[in-house]
Amino acid sequence: MAWRSQTEANYDRASELKAFDDTKTGVKGLVDSGITQVPRIFITPRNDSDKNLKPSDSQLKFPIIDLENIDEDPIRHKKVVDEVRDASGTWGFFQVINHGIPGSVLEEMLDGVRKFYEQDPEERKKWYTRDRKRSVVYNSNFDLYSAPAANWRDTFFCKMAPHPPSPEELPAVCRDIMFEYTKQVLKLGTSLFKLLSEALGLDANHLGDMKCADGLALLCHYYPFCPQPELTMGASQHADSDFLTVLLNDNVTGLQVLYQNQWFDVPSVPGSLVVNVGDLLQLISNDRLISSEHRVLANNVRSRVSVACFFRSDIDKSDELYGPIQELLSEDNPPKYRATTMKEYVNYYNAKGLDGTSALLHFRV
Fold this sequence. Notes:
Layout: H1 13-22, H2 26-32, E1 64-66, H3 74-90, E2 93-97, H4 103-118, H5 121-125, E3 136-139, E4 154-161, H6 175-199, H7 206-209, E5 215-223, E6 233-238, E7 244-249, E8 255-259, E9 262-265, E10 273-277, H8 279-284, E11 294-297, E12 304-312, E13 321-322, E14 340-341, H9 342-352
Parallel strand pairs: 1-2
Antiparallel strand pairs: 2-10, 3-4, 4-5, 5-12, 6-11, 7-10, 7-12, 8-9, 8-11, 13-14
Helix pairs in contact: 3-6, 4-6
């Protein structure tokens, strides 16, 4: 029997959350069942969407950075470093074009994610779990039981570096492209961390030597068609818990960045990738680089797919302490954060959930 929301008279949020979770088919399962109203557990408090105006300055452009020939042309290289510094210190976001990953690989990755979610529900159920120690964790809302409202989104998550899973541990419909896409993004990540190191005035290898790019987690999101998109969110307002995120979107818009206290749509640029600073990069840069709040709107046009690659150190085996980089500090610029490990930060972030507050506040001195 299809899962249905309880009526107002006997509403029990905890039971409703469990009933939804127990279906093991996520939001996609609700839509497939023919649901026409958003269940109460997904209804977002209005204060989460108050800041819904775009900037009025028509000259304001979302940063797009062209990476072509940056290793061959010193003048272009310096220009790109300046652009990365400006975008990362203001928006906390930028798009990259001519990044070196073939368009065919991008399309195949998006297609693989869509195939995973659109395969037979019984096959998809086999992967559904809340055990974060599994090689692949597929569920709806990592913070389902702690967030103020559930998001209209399903996700499967996999740690792809430094210790990739064996092929048989990954879903057959997308395993090959998961390995190929990861290989390509790791290469791009090396270049991005060099640019960011130089943008901070450090040696090009500084962030790489700090092992910021040693680990990579792949988060594959599916935002189903929503019958009442004005009542819920694809992803609530949040910042990312990593050093850097590289995001692949399909051509369905919905991602918004909070900039100058107003929401701004991230434009759809064919073949581009969206890059954003994570909390831990803001922490080690002592606020020189900004981990911006962002969100995803639900829509009633069609489903949306995205793939987020989270760069971070090896969360399971590294006990590396990350605090503000010494070379960036001075008497006039003392450390603003205490040191933390990757594991401590991510565990705190996950336990807190997407509640509209920044996890960085917990680590401020």
